[in-house]
Amino acid sequence: MTSGEPQRPEATESAWRTMRRGLALSPELRVGLAGTLALALVYMVGRVAVPVAVQRGIDDGLTVAGGPDLGVVGAVAVATAAVLVVTTICGYLMMRRLFTVSETALANVRTRAFRHVHDLSMLHQQSERRGSLVSRVTSDVDQITQFLQWGGVILIVNLGQLVVTTAVMLAYSWRLTLVVIVAFAPAVLVIRALQRRLGAAYGVVRQRTGALLGTIAESVVGAPVIRAYGIAGRTSRRLDDAIDAQRTAQQRAIRISIMGSSVGELAAGVALAGVVVLGVLLGVDGSLSVGQLTAFLFLVTLFIQPVQIATEVLNEAQNAIAGWRRVLDVLDVAPDVADPGEQGRELPDGPLDIRFAGVSFAYPGSPPVLHDVTLDIPAKSRVAVVGETGSGKTTFAKLLTRLMDPTEGTVLLSGVPLDRVRFSSLRSRVVMVPQDGFLFDATVGENVRFARPELTDEQLTVAFTELGLADWLDGLPSGLDTPVGERGEALSVGERQLVALARAYVADPDLLVLDEATSAVDPATEVRLQRTLDAVTRGRTTLAIAHRLSTAQAADEVIVVDRGRIVQRGPHDELVRDPDSVYGLLYASWLEQTR
Amino acid sequence: MLGRGLAVLGRAIREQPRIFAVAVTSSVLFGVMVIASAYVVGAVVGEVVVPSIADGSVAVGALALAAAALFGISVLRVVAIFGRRLGAGYMQYRLQAAYRRRVTRRYLDLPLAWHQRNATGTLLSNANSDVEAAWYPIAPLPFAVGTLVMLVGAIASLFLTDWALALVGLAVFPALFALNVVYSRRMAPRQARAQRLRAEVSGIAHESFDGALVVKTMGREAQETVRFSARAGELRDALISVGRLRGVFDPLLETLPSLGTLAVLVVGAVRLRHGAIGVTELVSVAFLFTVLAFPVRAIGWVLAELPRSVAGWDRVRRVLDATGEMPYGDRRLDPDPPAPASLAFHDVHFAYEPAEAHLPGVAVLGEVSFTVPAGKTVALVGPTGAGKSTVASLAVRLVDPRAGTVTLDGVDVRDLSAESLTSTVALVAQVPFVFDDTVRANITLDRPGIGDDDVWAALRLAEADGFVAALPDGLDTLVGERGTSLSGGQRQRLTLARALAGRPRLLVLDDATSAVDPRVEAAILAGLRAPAGGQGAAASILVVAYRRATIALADEVIYLEQGRVLARGTHRELLATVPGYADLVTAYEQAEREREQTRTYEEVTPLASGLEIEVDR
């Protein structure tokens, strides 16, 4: 599985297949399932208890010769009440078991999917898909649990009710049952057809709601532009259009939905009338009693409700199953950069050296980004990789940290092939500082000790001092306990980088990979960043993806990448001697930009 | 809570009285039909079925009448359901649309200072989910009101039928009502808790996946999973608790009317024996208990939604009641022929309003005075947080000063009409904002008098004509939400072209070219200062700048530090006389000297902000 698209075994996989896959994945769902279903069956019997009691009461107690027999009626009522008490308790037990088992299983699925997303390679985690990955562990699972809470129980109970009701009706009179079925059959067909239209109509609602949210967001985020250009009129027109488009779609959907329930209602009318006519004729024949016919009228009303509700719920069920399928599909994607785990090796102790042996890399379906790169970097040297945008220089960082595996060739650290190294060893010895220095919504201290939660505040303070950031830390309102806000937004871009560097520093790696930040910060902050960077990299093997040639100037060695190949390497001073080389040209344009 | 909830519902009814009347009338009709159907079924059994079976012969007319009555009631019920559900749905959607309109209109009217005090996420949910929550109980409301009428009608009809059976009804219906109230009251906090936890679980997933690279490269997947799983576990427990409550009440709500029917059977048998009622009455009442159980739940649905509705309404109200206007004047500036405008700040003070009234505001600017003479370029330089962006916002009147005045061609900007102000000045912000629309619409913004020729001319001036021409549909290319299909530099040049297309007489650039190649930036600025026509500058320029190359193009530099103008003059003068300015502008050179001294450390020396944008995957 190398394609970036999450695998879809079959685009239109049947609901049954999805459920089977889901059950295979969550065997805990099967635990006690038979018991739960048995309880559900008993619970449903309660629904037909009253019509049966009415029939018995009328036939054996009320319309017997010599006037109503109170003893019989009383006995029927007490017996039925006893049955109702039992079925009510069964109903409670059934739901209790169902919710406990299903919520527990789905919480586990949620957690597993979450972990699985983290185990997927960079390729799958790309930013444009991040939103949809989040919905795999949130709204998709929510959709299933919400369905189970409302629709699922309704579906089980009502389908069961349909079955039990039909059975009781058949016991009374197969001919009248036929009348009911004949009356409802066309309604069911019409409702099913409407259901499909309703599904499409809800699709339009969702899409227009999305568009509306986009338009509102635009008007809020773009408020300064709207004000500065005096285009409030244009904006409110766009908003009104989006609001109205969503409203019309909602209204259309509800019209279709009402048509469905109306059809069911009409069918019930036809059934009732038919039952009365045929029932009286049968009664005159002597093949049906007053009580049975009356019970039948009760049973018909019990028949309408499940037909209507079940068809409505089926729509929700389809959404829930689609959500389940999406979650299962994510879990089915095998991580293409796998941890060798127990079979893997530890990296040897001490400083690490780097070797690229015949390494090529291509994104799936794209031309190669790196071509047959062979490269040795001795331990403890500080190397800068430079090159134009798109030259492939960031690929070095991704291969070295095993965010991706090479298409061909091997990357070795101190002689050990990277794909043989246990993740636990790799991640503790090799640390990368990504471009944006992502921070979590926690305190400065918590962010810095991210990789090593055991560090005390004293140890962190010492680390900040070693990095020359003691005065910066003192300047924060609550020192280490200062919250950094969502994505670190309470700090400036430069400060976020400082925290990200401190985080890498306390992780104390033997190989540090830096993807240099490109955000514009004011020059004073930038100088401070550089000093911190220098302290962090001291004494470690460092590979810096350099966006500024100043980094290259300070490095022990510069590796120049051009169109996926290494075209030059050596110290800065040596490389600039050839003004017509790739590096010479890069440097010249750099000087032109900055002086 | 109940009182406030009913007040919200009352407002909804006042806003949509006619459609509510239709829905409630239909709902009452439905209720009447439910009661009627019970009595018709009873009558059919008592008057048609029993005699026919007893006599062994069929009264065809009576039978046909019975069938017609049953079918007729169904038809009326369908009409009632149509009216009720359609009315309720339309009412709910109309209210939502009306309030979304009002809230978003308010966003457009409220001053930017108000926007700055409120988080974007809050404003989005005010217009979306809060409006939705406020009107959520409207969907079952007509049903609930109709059911209340129906309950009263049912009890009345019971008393008309037989007092003993009516007593059974008096015991069962209020109990059913009470059970529903208790159910929704106990459910509401559990649902709210589950909803809150859902949002928290989602928040953790968002953050964790956004930081996936950090999590992965530091090998913290297991710890992140523990963090997620803990909250997912809380959500699971909350949902199980919701389910258990449902398990208690759902079966009870079904059983109670069934027990009522059994009671009717027993009491009815006694009354039948006494001859007080006939089979007709008994069957009618028994049937009534069966069909009434379901509608009563509608009352519970409304009650269950009320707390959420009140909370949503309170948040919507906060926006609608927010005060603060920024009225425009009626003075106009339109010199003929158009000439560059002059801008002046006179002793301007500015502070951000505090988030809460009792807190002090954060002072940003004090005693700021300077001028941008007509046709000149002035650079605004200062360290981060000096107030440069605030000066830019004041210049185009996105915000008003606390004290002092900002004038354009000598006229206070507060006295200018909206049209005159926006046609005179244009701001290009630090972060480019691009609408989800075509390139053309992003540049013209539907302002009158900007044809395609003007659009291309503006694009040329912003050095954006090249990439736009290369787009698949040229000016008609859709740029995607927030312009995601464009690079940062392209977006900046697009917003620059947008400003230029309006032919402003004063251009304010707030670090607006940071993602543009310095050579391109220089070319753009040069083009603005001396247009191809050969005459003098078309606009005066106020530019917030970091780069020395940009600063060098300015006629004058204003040096700002901590909200005060510390110095003004040419770049050369400031460099020689103002140490802070020299420190800032020459930070790189200084660092380089340091490196020379401490050669042993191999100190890294940056030369300028790294502005190269890596679009590598």
UniProtKB/TrEMBL annotation, chain A:
GO annotations of cellular component type: plasma membrane
Pfam families from the UniProt entry: ABC_membrane, ABC_tran
Q: Where are the transmembrane segments?
A: 29-50, 70-94, 147-170, 176-194, 256-281
User: Which PROSITE patterns does this one have?
Assistant: ABC_TM1F, ABC_TRANSPORTER_1, ABC_TRANSPORTER_2
InterPro entries, per this entry?
AAA+_ATPase (IPR003593), ABC1_TM_dom (IPR011527), ABC1_TM_sf (IPR036640), ABC_transporter-like_ATP-bd (IPR003439), ABC_transporter-like_CS (IPR017871), P-loop_NTPase (IPR027417), Type_1_exporter (IPR039421)
Q: Which organism is it from?
A: Micromonospora halophytica
CDD domains, A to Z = ABC_6TM_exporters
How is this protein named in the record? ABC-type multidrug transport system, ATPase and permease component
ABC transmembrane type-1 domain boundaries: 34-319
What does UniProt give as the signal peptide span?
Answer: none
**GO-annotated molecular function:** ABC-type oligopeptide transporter activity; ATP binding; ATP hydrolysis activity
Localization recorded for this chain is: Cell membrane
Matches recorded under SMART domains: AAA (SM00382)
**Residue ranges of domain ABC transporter in the record:** 354-588
UniProtKB/TrEMBL annotation, chain B:
The listed locations are:
Cell membrane
| Protein topology in the membrane | Multi-pass membrane protein
- Domain ABC transporter, residue spans: 343-587
Keyword tags: ATP-binding, Cell membrane, Membrane, Nucleotide-binding, Transmembrane, Transmembrane helix, Transport
**From the Swiss-Prot or TrEMBL record, what is one GO molecular function term?**
ATP hydrolysis activity
Which Pfam families does the UniProt record give?
A: ABC_membrane (PF00664), ABC_tran (PF00005)
Its main localization is membrane
Provide the transmembrane region boundaries.
Answer: 20-46, 58-82, 134-157, 163-183, 282-304
Q: Known Gene3D superfamilies for this protein?
A: ABC transporter type 1, transmembrane domain (1.20.1560.10), P-loop containing nucleotide triphosphate hydrolases (3.40.50.300)
Q: Where is the ABC transmembrane type-1 domain?
A: 21-308
Q: Give a yes or no for keyword Metal-binding in this entry.
A: no
GO cellular component terms listed in the entry, alphabetical order: plasma membrane
Which family is this sequence assigned to?
Belongs to the ABC transporter superfamily. Lipid exporter (TC 3.A.1.106) family.
Spell out the PANTHER family in the cross-references: ATP-BINDING CASSETTE SUB-FAMILY B, ATP-BINDING CASSETTE SUB-FAMILY B MEMBER 6
What is the name listed in the Swiss-Prot or TrEMBL entry for this protein?
A: ABC-type multidrug transport system, ATPase and permease component
Query: Where does this protein come from, organism-wise?
Result: Micromonospora halophytica
The organism's taxonomy opens as:
Bacteria, Bacillati, Actinomycetota, Actinomycetes, Micromonosporales
